[in-house]
Amino acid sequence: MVQAVLLALSVDAFGAPTDRLWYIAPAANWNEALPIGNGRLGAMHFGTVGRERLALNEDSIWSGEHYYSPTPSMRENLPEVRRLLLSGDYRGAHALAERHLALPNDPRYGHYQPLADLWIDFPGAEPVLDYRRELDLESALSKVSYRQDGVTFMREVLASAPDQVIAVRLTADRPGRITCDVALSREKDAIITSDAANRIVLSGSTPFGGVRFAVVLEARTEGGTIRKEGERLRIERADSVVLVLGAQSTFRRPDPLAIASAEVGRAAAKRWDEIERAHGADFQSLFRRVTLDLGSTPPAPRPTDERLRLVRAGASDPALEALLFQYGRYLLISSSRSGTLPANLQGIWNDSYKPSWFGDYTININTEMNYWPAEPANLAELTEPLFTLIEKLRPVGRLAARDRYGCRGWVLSTRTAPWATSELRGTPNLLFNDAAAWLSLHLWEHYQFAPDRTFLRDRVYPVLRESAEFYLDFLVAEPSHGWLVAGPATSPENTFKAPDGYKSALSMGPTMSQQIVRELFTAVLAAGEVLGGDDAFRGVVRDKLAQLAPMQIGRRGQLQEWLQDFDEIEPQHRHVSHLFGLHPGTQISPNRTPELAAAARRSLELRGDGGTGWSKAWKINFWARLLDGDHAEKMVRELLAVSTLPNLFNSHPPFQIDGNFGATAGIAEMLLQSHLEAVHLLPALPSAWATGSVSGLRARGGLMVDIKWADGHLTLATLRATSVERVRVLVRYGPHERMVEVTKGEPVIITLKTFEEK
Q: Element (H or E) spanning 304, and its range?
């Protein structure tokens, strides 16, 4: 179709743009399209006038299958690799590890793949007036509006969790003016059929085991006609059109066509307002929990892409930073719901059959970062898909611990897939033994934010304990000090210059590994203290904890990344893994460990503010934990200016969603922290956010917190107990501290006068 000419804009077509992304032109490519999702089904909405496109995804459309390679030669050669590393022969250790400690790429690992495309072709090429495209975050509706040939046309697109469908409504302000062709397509491995005049069915499969899947599209109209023309539906002279699309795969159900057909049939029998109302109520029950105001919007309403251009030119836009925070929450709600797979490297949105890094679960930082905002940003139940995957991974993790390392417990390396694969990909540079422990700590975090003894006993402690078992067997004493160290391991995905000049990734006891083990052992002891019992095991853990290699400060004043004070091959490498103990860990803080905090700051200065999108997002969190709000906000602006696409997706490059989630978590950390057994109000408030408010943030201990501030100072905070009947907590603001007791149903009000009261 001929692209329509865009002539004018009505900025008030959908109201004020404070809670939405909006544009005055269609998406020119996938990175400008707008995402919708119900956790399982997703789409990218382009909004092109003549030929509308929805690029469709379903979270289980993966190639590959479950497989496991015992790799006994790894266990057999592990002692020698360790001996070589501890003796300083990094070159020899790498050579041996290359042969025995990694697996070649295997196509059974698979890729996350697109589902299909939905196309809606409209006749005519008349000029277009008042074009507007938007994504309303609160209602989770993507909309397009324009005037053409004297008629105002509207398109609305949503992904409903209650109805498990994607629905599209086409309307016009004059009757009989909607004529269009509707089609489904997929680049490969699919066929199109139709079993009714108003339905299209696309069926296909993914390779290397994979899944069989089915997509069902049904059209309903008010007025006009529908007929089949080959593989398309032809709609003529309708007053309005509703398209309902469902999809399923054999990942969950043996007969995806029957299930998808039933879901579509039920939804298509409803009125649009019924579908929209149920969808809105469901989405808003999650999204509306948190509000954030960081300052006014620009003097004149501007499209989102123009605001990004102004930030790149050096403008300040606190309202855009608040929008970025809420966008991360929107994306997590849209890509992770109970019963779905966890959000992957791209959430659920992907247009490639071979996406970068497989579109998988990269568990040396990226998957974990996806879920950082879930607890503080009041979306705790969205962690359930991650917890389900953890349970699914434990059996293969036990096999890997036994067969590859000769240890008890469970272990995972750098990445995994929905098939619960224990993957050692390609090269020893990606050897990472600490993923299972890091994932286990997410369960502990969930408990800390909402203490529940049953959850701790049944779901948290068994996973933590089993992860700790692995390290009790895996740790060895290094010869210089007798410290216990984990290894061979890497500091993902960095390399250092060995004494002989060799570029090495492997070492014994890299700082991140030691910090993760320390965090894990500490959690095991704390959880065990709550539950009681298991005294002998906890005694062993306590003894090993005391023997772990400590964090060290190097000759440049930096926190050492490795056991020895090596120089990085890339001094400004994107990973800053050795600051795990600062965030998300709890071992470094300006208040408790000022020397280590100063060393962490020096490490960040040496690394610089650059890096990939997710790296910048992690640095927001680091600077927030260092209580440096201005530098944390600088990193928010860096993320927007350098690593954000027109639709506000984070860019590695290419698109990678962890930067969005990391930014949301980082902004929350700037406003509220609770990891040091205190509720710290406005710990890293930047000067750019002089006046504002936030409501609905969560703190550890089972608390909800609202905060208001003006001219850079706290004016009011409200604490509510949500998951506990009563809690005593230390409240901190700047140099002030006050112990308060919060009872469920009785909010506690905090002002500056509160800290002055006897």
A: helix 304-312
What residue spans of 21-171 are helical by DSSP H? 72-86, 90-100
Q: Are residues 430 and 467 in the same domain?
A: yes
Dihedral, CA of residue 347, residue 350, residue 356 and residue 360, to nearest 10: 40
Same domain, 80 and 162: no
CB atoms near residue 530 (< 10 Å) = 13
What stretches of 647-722 show up as alpha helix (H) in DSSP? 658-671
Domain CATH number, residue 177: 2.70.98.50
* Residue closest to 118 by CA, chosen among 159, 173, 174, 152: 159
Q: Structure tokens of 690?
A: 């002089």
> Which domain does 709 fall in, by range?
688-756
**Token output for 714:** 């706290």
Peptide bond preceding 584: is omega within 30 degrees of 0, i.e. cis?
A: yes
**Cis bond before residue 373 (omega within 30° of 0):** no
Confidence (pTM): 0.96
Averages of pLDDT over runs of 10 residues in the chain (758 residues) are 33 51 98 98 97 98 94 94 96 93 87 98 91 98 97 98 98 98 97 91 97 98 96 97 98 96 98 98 98 80 95 95 98 98 98 95 96 98 98 97 97 94 76 95 98 98 98 97 96 94 95 98 98 97 98 98 95 94 98 97 97 97 98 98 98 96 98 97 98 98 98 97 94 96 97 86
φ and ψ at 540, to 5 degrees?
Answer: -65, -45
Q: List CB contacts of 254: < 8 A, sequence separation 6 or more.
A: none
- Whether 615 is in a domain gets the answer no
- Whether residue 50 contacts residue 122, with contact meaning beta carbons closer than 8 Å, is answered with yes
The residues, any chain, with a CB within 8 Å of residue 472's CB and separated by 6 or more, are 408, 409, 540, 541, 544
Closest CA to 579 of 568, 589, 566: 589
Contact 86, 150 (CB under 8 A): no
Q: Among residues 101, 82, 90, 76, which one has the least CA distance to residue 476?
A: 82
CA within 13 Å, CB half, 337: 22
* CA diameter of the chain: 84
Residue 117, helix vs strand vs coil: strand
Rg of the chain, C-alpha, whole Å: 27
Q: How far is CA 499 from CA 90, 431, 564, 565, 566, in A?
A: 9, 21, 10, 10, 8
Same domain, 82 and 182: no
| Nearest-5° Cα angle at 330, 326 to 334 | 170
Count of CB atoms within 10 A of residue 532's CB? 7
For tokens 């509000």, name the residue.
291
- Note the Cα 97 to chain centre separation in Å: 32
Assigned token pair, 352? 């490639």
Q: Which long-range contacts (CB under 8 A, 24 or more apart) does 29-33 make?
A: 30/55, 30/351, 31/645, 31/646, 31/647, 31/649, 31/651, 31/655, 32/305, 32/645, 32/646, 32/647, 33/647
Q: For residues 83 and 185, state if they share a domain.
A: no
Lookup: tokens for 211: 């899944």
**What's the pLDDT score for residue 702?**
97
712: left (phi over 0), alpha (psi -120 to 50) or beta: left
